Amino acid sequence: MSKAFIALQDNEESHYIVEAIEQDNPTATVIYQPAMIRIENEGRLVINRATVEEKMGRDWEIPALHVNLITLGGNVDEDDDQFSLTWKQ
Amino acid sequence: MSIEIKTATLEPIRHTFEHTKRRFGDKPASRYQEASYDIAPEQNFHYRPFWQPDKELFDKSRTAVVMEDWNVHKDPRQYYYGTYVQARAKLQEITESNYAFFEKRGSAGRMSEAVRAKIIRCLVPLRHAELGANMNNMFAFSNGTATVVNQGFLYNAMDRLGIAQYLSRIGLLLDGNSTESLTLAKEYWMTDPAWQGLRRYIENVLCVKDWFEVFIAQDVVLDTLLYDLIYRQFDDAITEQGGSDLAMLIEFMQEWHKDSSRWVDATLKTTVEESDHNRTTIKRWVDDWREKAVADLAPLADIAVGDTAMAASLDVLNQRLAKVGL
Amino acid sequence: MSNRKINMKEKYRLLTRDLDWEYSYRDYKEVFPQQEFEGIKITDWSKWEDPFRLTMDAYWKYQAEKEKKLYAILDAFSQNNSQLNVTDARYVNAIKLFLTGISPGEHQAAMGFGQVGRQLGGVGARVACQMQAIDELRHVQTQIHAMSHYNKFFDGFQDFSHMHDRVWYLSVSKSFFDDARTAGPFEYMVAIGFSFEYVLTNLLFVPFMSGAAYNGDMATVTFGFSAQSDEARHMTLGLEIIKFLLEQHPDNLPIVQRWINKWFWRGTRMLSLVAMMMDYMLPNKVMSWQEAWEVYFEEAGGSLFKDLARYGIEMPDYAQTAIAEKEHISHQVWSMFYNYGHATAFHTWMPTEKEMDWLSEKYPNTFDKYYRPRFEKWREMEAAGERFYNPTLPMLCQTCQIPMGFTDMEDPTSIFYRQSEYDGERYNFCSDGCKDIFDHEPEKYVQAWLPVHQIYQGNCGGPSMEDVLGNYYKINLGVDNMDFHGSPDEERWNIWHNLQPAEDKLKQAS
């Protein structure tokens, strides 16, 4: 199985998103590099709006993810509540 | 670690890039200048386009108007990407709160059935015309030579997509998200005799190959007429019929048109004043497209406002053209 | 009136896809005249899957937020003279190469996406391309603004736009984008949208920008990562175009595969400049080029091609060659530029002892065996006051336009060399990949504006090096070019930091 991954700028808002990703993807690996955080997981990685909102304690919309996003790997599926990256093989 | 710096040694060794220095003199340049002027390639192109082998990339001959130097243009708004998106973000924030307010106080339900129907017939179909405007401006962007000119077309193209989307949302606000209004508006656009002239005009402009002619046909002639007709005269007419809340929903278009007109006027003026050749060429395009536009828009003007509306909008266009001596 | 709820997908469809209509006054082919000549078959644009669903209101809102953050940092950077905080002044040469070589490519990409954003017949694809066009304009402009402050304190940035049209090594990236833009709309999308944006740009923006952060360059890392935040959208678009073309018609597969092969190789050759930036121009190292290649091409690209196998797409031809070259490429390109350091608008230098040790450690199979001895020799020559410059003009590859200096991976000590004949003329290539590209479309590649040929033909200001480098390229000779040691950049840096000149250091060391 291939690794789906996402990299975020290392800043305050991203830390909440990373916490949410860790909670929703228990097998994910988080790698800290200068100025960026890379999170990878076998096959699939999801970001749930509800979990991020819970971590931040405020409303948060999926498109706001793009403000802190650096790169990703996997097929993207995005709706109001979830952003997911998947490799089918 | 403390770094000792003798301030005298921290003097800059130059004020700006060479391309801005050559054009504006040896002094600090603005962000608009540094990132807009003389940054497009001008020579030593490697290959000819498969899709147009008789021309080079950035070929100046993609329009019949001639400028000794296309970089003499200036956008009075001094938009580069950053200032552009920030100006639009401000406008969209106001629009968002207007739309939320309209929805929250149930304004659609307080309009009469007749007013709602009239907005769906006379305003909402413009979402398709705006997509055409988007494509026409994109064409001008990708065929021009100087970034300082081209970027204005790119911003305009994206604005038109945004306006098409706001117009669609107006439909959704009026039909309570049933999407019926959008279906109906598309039917008007495709078959209603009142709309066929405008649709034909747009489809014709989509086939024009000269990018500056596209600018004249779309941004100068058609937009001047259409924005006056709809966003001034139709707005007044609907207000008289008890639909004054529509004003909240079209404030974006009105403000945008004011903003965009400053750029359109400046671009037109600089090009016309360059030479008699340009003046003659542009005058021919203006005459040609104005005649078509007046004929094509008249049926819409009649149903949207009344039989004097077209003449009033034509006055506005002629006054605008007179200012640049056309 | 209580409103029905519309979800993101439906709303996006209504606000974008539903705007289009079927033309009846003019013919569809008149409006989209470029859609067929490449042989790509599109049967139904409505099958296009939107790669992202961003309406203009949200676009303005989020992009304005990004820009506000970015310019706040750029303002603070210049107000605080933060150029003083970079690791050392050698580093700045990497971003000189960035502004002269890469930023104009962003401009070209903006124009190219504008072109396809008008010419593709499906509204969903057009709108996605248009957003990328305006994003690419953003990138070139924010890069100019980020470098504007460096330009005031270092040499070599000042005439980036003039140089991009003329200077020999900048022709590598200019010809790359010219090649894509002069192709048809679908090849452009496979070239830039997929092969470059999805498969290769991570190698440029992610590890290099992380490296910029590690070298104290807040301006570059900020524009770099801020640009990357748009790139995620672009990558999704690049992937969608491939899937869409392959799902539309089986006849598209061989055409798309050939384009992937071509653009993978073309992109890999261009990125060899980035390999050198990573391994030689970042004083503080984050990862080696080889490591970056393994993470972002072999692993991420590997997953991608595994995923695309269901459509019949295979790994690009010559991926194995590129993989073998990962242990060599940065050293070879740095050697070329060191050789021709008198003809570049940035400075070159030999790595310090410590830096060579790092290279030995990162490249255990190649650095000590093939490169270190030569570099040590060059360092000795410099210490003896005879810094090596190659006085001849290099022969360039007809396709990628890089000097013929890459070696044969079967025998890394000999230069790889191929030839083709076309219309009675002979053409030279650095690799089988570049030769294949030429052989498929010789009538295109014979048109290339090869800088060295142009010098010989007298089209570059005159016969002498001063004419070409000084008058035609507008390199300030003795200022922008030559070794970093002894440069005005170095001298100013030392004054700012009260350091002794490198010359004295070298004397003490020897």
| Span between termini of chain C | 87 Å
Oligomeric nature of the chains: heterotrimer
Helix and strand composition category of chain A:
alpha+beta
Q: Which protein chains make the most extensive interface, counting residues with beta carbons within 8 Å of the other chain's beta carbons? A: B-C, 90 and 99 residues
- Order of helical and strand elements of chain C: HHHHHHHHHHHHHHHEEEEHHHHHH
**CA-to-CA gap between the ends of chain A?**
6 Å
Q: What is the level 1 CATH name of chain A? A: Alpha Beta
Given as residue ranges, the uncertain stretches of chain A (5+ residues, pLDDT < 50) are none
Report the helical percentage of chain A. 25-40%
Run of helices and strands of chain A? EHEEEHHEEE
Q: Biggest β-sheet of chain A, characterized?
A: 4 strands, antiparallel
User: Within the CATH hierarchy, at the fold level, what is the topology of chain A?
Assistant: Phenol Hydroxylase P2 Protein
Strand order, main sheet of chain C: write it out.
1-2
The number of domains of chain A is: 1
Taking pLDDT < 50 over at least 5 consecutive residues as the criterion, the unreliable ranges of chain C are: none
CATH class of the domain at 8-17 and 29-327 in chain C: Mainly Alpha
Number of strands of chain A: 7
> What's the architecture of the domain at 8-17 and 29-327 in chain C in CATH terms?
Orthogonal Bundle
Question: What is the assigned CATH homologous superfamily of chain A?
Answer: Monooxygenase component MmoB/DmpM
Radius of gyration of chain A: 12 Å
How many strands of chain C?
4
